[in-house]
Write a structure and sequence with these properties.
single chain, alpha+beta, BirA Bifunctional Protein, domain 2, Rossmann fold, 2 domains, nine-stranded mixed sheet, five-stranded mixed sheet, 14 helices, 23 strands, binds adenosine-5'-triphosphate, binds magnesium ion
Amino acid sequence: MKMSRTFVPVLRETPADAEIVSHRLMLRAGLIRQTAAGIYAWLPLGLRVLQKISDVVRAEQERAGAAEMLMPTIQSADLWRKSGRYDAYGPEMLRIADRSGREMLYGPTNEEMITQIFMSETKSYRDLPKTLFHIQWKFRDEVRPRFGIMRGREFLMKDAYSFDLDEAGMKESYEAQFRAYLRTFAALGLKAVPVRAPSGPIGGDMSHEFHVLAETGESAIFYDAALEDIDIDAPDAVERLSATYAMEEEEHAKVADCPVPADRLLKRRGIEVGHIFAFGTKYTQSMGFSVQTKDGGTIHPLMGSYGVGVSRLMGALIEANHDDDGIVWPDQVAPYRVGLINLRQGDADCDAMCDDLYERLSAATSVLYDDRDERGGAKFATMDMIGLPWQVIVGPRGVKSGVVEMKNRRTGEKMELSPDDAIAKITS
Ligand code: ATP
Ligand code: MG
């Protein structure tokens, strides 16, 4: 992609109303723009990152045996009346009416809808277990939308739903998602702490939140330092992590005798990036979903639901990956892997070398070519701000001696290389 064609409105000034660094940098790097309170447009670079985060989430869901589908954002109020949640949900739900006055809503979550869809086609134990997920926009009319997309009103969520025949099956599905979450956050390069959670309005017994540690996090969490030594790839990781003490401050305050010795009890701030629940027959019972069992009886399937804040993760990633000059994207979510800078746009030799590099690099990886008629200083600042992992800089002096400069955004390391060697280094 060429900078002259795409839309990256980088801001020189720090936006006054953005309180935390990720919000400031998302505005400054031209990733998002607010269109109404807590509602954001995703500009080209922001959208690319959102898609890459979604890809990581999706890959781990599929690895865990969950199948992707897509449910609509708009739901009917009647569906929610079946579970009794239409009245229970409160003012966070955006209620709308269609032209005939039928009550609708913008989905804050999808338990009712998935149950309705799945139950219509499922009569027998043979069709279970199953875990289905989608990555879809949600709307919650938050009392205090803040920190940009961290607590938005419209936000992107991965939500998965499991259906099982018995408690043991439900526990297995829950653990499969638990493990998928550990892998997802690790694949994004984030350290996430699974915290035992009260299950809240969704209901149920087993529930964990996943918090990415960050000083700007909205939640305070307490946990046993021993948790940090658990290898998430070990076969017993889920078991050990769920057995290790970790609690949100509010819940921790209710615990009479904290089992963790004082010198091992850590207090940190965290961003809640995921929340999983197993709630049994809460919806299948209220919505009348039963299946035939092997021995001819009937049961209500047991369910779990599993959310990841896909758009909130972008905030968490930036909180963990930035410096004074801007964002420092990890490779796996960077909007482009390489930023190509032409220091003398319009100079025939510089243009020719850039065109050649652009074509060859694009064949191997993703490249953003800054081909604008701008000063070098402005191009450097922009490229640092948007944080692509590699910069390839072409200037008249280098062109004469057949070299380009390459900079690693994270380490700041710079090297002069021939164009061939630069390509080889980036694509190796
Ligand atoms: P919170 O306590 O932050 O309000 P929640 O418990 O309401 O979260 P869930 O209903 O479990 O959240 O939703 C699953 C995930 O969706 C959360 O873990 C979070 O990462 C994300 N999420 C929830 N609300 C928002 C929001 N307003 N903006 C962005 N992401 C959100
Ligand atoms: Mg909430």
